[in-house]
């Protein structure tokens, strides 16, 4: 009886299980996708920055980063709130990792050379949901602006 219960609840070995690292990368990337879409104009330069940030942040190849982006685009499309992404990040990221993510989000906002008021508002919401204070919010912005040149 116990053996039958174990078999019933066991995860079959043939089924691929997404790693936590992949799910976290998708959650972080989905926040960047949400930002890219906030002004109703998801542009190629923003998507390129998102892939660049994924390569750097998650130490993956460009192809893997593009897969992460594809998953994030699908998840962002189906998402009804930011909480599902920020909740995962809060559970697994420390403060410096959240600050680095916010800097990447700022880089996406700066990709087209201007920051729309809706983009800034969304970044502020994300920072609040990630429990980042105003100083951390501004530091991330300044680092992203410096990197943009």
TrEMBL record:
Coiled coil: none
InterPro entries named in the record: DjlA_N, TerB-like
Domain of life of the organism encoding this protein: Bacteria
Domain Co-chaperone DjlA N-terminal: 26-142
Name of the featured protein: TerB family tellurite resistance protein
Organism of origin: Marinobacter alkaliphilus
Lineage summary: Bacteria, Pseudomonadati, Pseudomonadota, Gammaproteobacteria, Pseudomonadales
């Amino acid at each position: 009886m116990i053996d039958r219960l174990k078999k019933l609840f066991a995860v079959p070995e043939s089924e691929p299980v997404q790693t936590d690292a992949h799910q976290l990368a998708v959650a972080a990337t989905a926040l960047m996708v949400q930002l890219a879409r906030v002004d109703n104009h998801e542009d190629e330069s923003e998507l390129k920055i998102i892939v660049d940030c994924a390569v750097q942040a998650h130490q993956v190849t460009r192809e893997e980063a593009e897969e992460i982006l594809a998953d994030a685009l699908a998840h962002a499309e189906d998402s009804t709130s930011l909480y599902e992404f920020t909740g995962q990040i809060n559970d697994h990221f420390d403060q410096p990792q959240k600050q680095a993510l916010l800097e990447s989000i700022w880089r996406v906002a700066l990709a087209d050379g201007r920051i729309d008021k809706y983009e800034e508002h969304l970044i502020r919401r994300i920072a609040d949901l990630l429990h980042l204070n105003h100083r951390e919010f501004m530091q991330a912005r300044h680092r992203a602006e410096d990197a943009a040149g």
